[in-house]
Amino acid sequence: MDEIIRRAKIFEGYSEQPYKCTADKWTIGYGYNFEDRGFRTAILVKILSVGGFSREIAESLLRKMSWQVSAFWRRSTLSIKI
Hints:
The chain is α+β, with helices and mostly antiparallel strands. The protein has one domain. 62% of the residues lie in helices and 15% in strands. A three-stranded antiparallel sheet has the order 1-2-3. The longest helix has 16 residues.
């Protein structure tokens, strides 16, 4: 799983500031689409307590989404090999 997380970080890059992704969705961190997914209360509390979004928070979100990231990379690898 660590390899998948490492690849997702490289592919997505990191942004501390919100931006519109290629799908025109508000995104932050390592490609976290908060427009559709939102934030859990615990993450919002952490963002407020540290004074903003951070790499630590972004990595936490990425690890929580690791099953989705894993599925994405499996599909990407399959489509490239075909």
